[in-house]
Design a protein that fits this description.
Helices cover about 15% and strands about 25% of the residues. It is built from three helices and six strands. Strands 1-4 form a two-stranded antiparallel ribbon. A two-stranded antiparallel ribbon has the order 2-3. The chain has a two-stranded antiparallel ribbon with strand order 5-6.
């Protein structure tokens, strides 16, 4: 039985991110994709905060565990529906 792999990405809370607190872009330094030569975690010129490329991110959680401000989280993206959803309403319930 084949299992479907859910897409997971790293999300940065820009309000919590403080580059000074981690020694300036620890997430960028520990990212295995960055270490292999790709630019998964980059620093934006606008606010000097990191940005994570969702197409390159492998959701390894290394940046999540290393961030001292807990500004990075891994989230599961919902799968695309293949059919039109059926809505069911009942007493105290709502179901797709």
């Amino acid at each position: 039985m084949a299992t479907k792999k859910t897409k997971r990405i790293a999300v940065l809370d820009r309000g919590l991110c403080s580059p000074k607190a981690c020694g300036f872009y620890l997430c960028q330094k520990v990212c295995p994709i960055n270490r292999s030569g790709e630019d998964c975690v980059t620093v934006l010129d606008i606010d000097k905060k990191p940005a994570i490329d969702e197409n390159l991110c492998i959701a390894c959680q290394i940046c999540v565990k290393k961030c001292p401000k807990n500004a990075i989280a891994i989230v599961n993206l919902p799968d695309q529906l293949k059919e039109t959803p059926i809505h069911r309403y009942g007493r105290n319930m709502f179901t797709l």
